[in-house]
Amino acid sequence: MSAPRKLHIKSYGCQMNVYDAQRMVDTLAPEGFVETASADDADLVILNTCHIREKASEKVFSELGRLRVMKEDAAREGHDVRIAVAGCVAQAEGAEIMRRAPTVDVVVGPQSYHNLPQLLEQAAREGRALDTEFPVEDKFKFLKAPSNRAIRARGVSSFVTVQEGCDKFCTFCVVPYTRGAEASRPVEHIAEEVRRLADNGVREITLIGQNVNAYHGEGPDGRVWSLGRLAHHLAAIPGIVRLRYSTSHPRDMDDSLIEAHRDLPALMPFVHLPVQSGSDRILAAMNRRHRADDYRRIIARFRDACPDIAFSSDFIVGFPGETETDFAATLALVGEIGYASAYSFKYSPRPGTPAADMGDAVPPAVMDERLARLQHLIDSQQAAFNAAMVGRTVDVLFERPARNPGQIVGRTPYLQPLHVMASPDIVGQVLPVAVMRHESYSLFGDIVAATPPPARVATAQPQPATGA
Ligand code: SAH
Ligand code: SF4
Ligand code: F3S
Questions:
Q1: Counting CB atoms within 10 angstroms of each CB, which of 144, 236, 275, 334 has the fewest?
Q2: Least confident residue range of 53-67, 152-166, 403-417
Q3: If you measure from the C-alpha of residue 17 to the centroid of ligand 3, how many angstroms do you get, rounded to a whole number?
Q4: Which residue intervals of 388-427 are DSSP H helices?
Q5: Whose CA is nearest to atom 7 of ligand 3?
Q6: How close is the Cα of 27 to the center of ligand 1, in Å?
């Protein structure tokens, strides 16, 4: 048998790219590839790229410059290194990459990476290979399952893609073009994957999709199931103690998901629900197809169903035509909702999207200034949210030993990292922790019970007010 070949994958962008990278590793394992943490000793380097903002895309070409030098050095020593570009830049600019970067052997898009083994063979035979098709067959049918060892090495929390693609066409966004049309995996495929993960020690599943709450997969009864119904089904799988989902769109929010937050202790009370802007004028220009008040009403419904729920969001500042009044509406909305955390980005014009041709650009200095103001507000809300945890008892899923000796790190229901002094035996358990203090983004506490509580008991602590 030949020596294993080493594979290094570098992923940029969203959680789905993290998931896809693992599936690429799994799919190449039967071909004799083992994953390596460094590009330097790899036989195959895959850049799993993101196209969402200009900065993200630019990284690919600078990284390819470095890899070219590495590949040429290796070739002089008789070591043949292959370079592949996957992900959303591959999908959007595959031909351009082939033209500009002769060092690249394989280009493969997000819907066709199940073909990687064949594409590598084709590149070996013909020099290079490109596949950016949106095939009619479902890639999930062809991807190889991870080995039990691989699952155990990846830890107690895992992503599982349940839905992919987007039909929303927000005017700023490349995702509908790079990931293709919205599609959902059948319930039983997902459940089978989750059972396998749970059997190998995974305790928390984050269901992912570009529009995860648009999920409409075929259920075992032949009917279309919603995300709420899927969550109930997956929560019943032995070993699964926590469920999350990301990213939701306000337009797709339905009662079954909101009610699942009331009825399902395993469904964590923390929802990433991007609103992008607080101005109805800008929301319309973005083609978000909801108003700020629709968003407020959704948040209120969640809070009615699950009083201790917390939210995060994404914001874009400096969308074409955004005035100070529009921006003030965003600040006002953030002030009203009170986020546990949030991401904010400067608008980045993306080739081929309608907003890129809108004109009326916001000057860079204004964008910088608005971003700073928004981030300041979000940071203060996050700090207040974290500070309000001190003195409470929260359930923590312990994930791994921390960098500091003797400490184990886990996550609260709100994804805050929390450290305790404890034995590594607690990894994989949910234990109640008295939160003693916080430092920037981390919490520190003491475990309050020596024995694990029943796995699916949720905290019933009231949610502190976090509005700024
Ligand atoms: N599907 C998710 C978001 C996917 S992209 C949703 O609908 O909310 C993640 C975030 O990147 C978006 O929420 C948005 O805030 C940001 N983003 C997307 N395109 C952008 C662009 N052209 N410029 C700046 N930020 C952008
Ligand atoms: Fe992009 Fe909008 Fe689709 Fe989200 S909903 S992926 S922001 S087009
Ligand atoms: Fe980026 Fe594609 Fe995800 S553009 S954010 S990697 S869907």
A1: 236
A2: 53-67
A3: 7
A4: none
A5: 175
A6: 29
Ligand 1 centroid to Cα of residue 317, in Å, is 11
Q: pLDDT category, 441, cuts 50, 70, 90?
A: confident
Q: Which of 93, 88, 39 is CA-nearest to residue 67? A: 39
Domain limits, CATH 3.80.30.20, in the chain: 140-387
Task: Convert 335-372 to b/e letters by CB count within 10 Å (16 or more is b).
Answer: eebbbbbbebbbbbebeebbbeeeeeebeeebbeebbe
Smallest-distance ligand from the CA of 246: 1
Measured by CA distance, the residue closest to atom 5 of ligand 2 is 168
Q: At the topology level of CATH, where does 5-131 sit?
A: Rossmann fold (3.40.50)
Angstrom distance (rounded) from CA 366 to CA 43: 46
| Domain range 393-447, its CATH number among 2.40.50.140, 3.40.50.720, 2.60.40.1180, 2.60.40.1930 | 2.40.50.140
**Ligand located closest to 274 CA:** 1
Query: What residue type is 108 in one-letter code?
Result: V
Say what the pLDDT of residue 451 is: 56
- Cβ atoms of 48 and 24 within 8 Å: the answer is yes
Instruction: Give DSSP secondary structure letters for 165-186.
Output: ------TT--HHHHT-S-EE--
**More confident site: 379 or 138:** 379
Where along the chain do the CATH 2.40.50.140 domains lie? 393-447
Beta carbon of 210 within 6 Å of any ligand 2 atom: yes
CA 297, CA 290: separation in Å to the nearest integer? 11
User: Which CATH number does 140-387 carry?
Assistant: 3.80.30.20
**Structure tokens given for 328:** 């003030």
Asked whether the beta carbons of 17 and 87 are under 8 A apart, the reply is: yes
Query: What pTM value is reported for the model?
Result: 0.94
DSSP type of residue 408: E
241: region left, alpha or beta (phi > 0 left; psi from -120 to 50 alpha): alpha
Shortest CA distance to 342 belongs to which of 389, 292, 300, 376? 376
Question: Encoding tokens for residue 254?
Answer: 């339905």
User: 306 CB contacts (<8 Å, ≥6 apart)?
Assistant: 258, 261, 262, 269
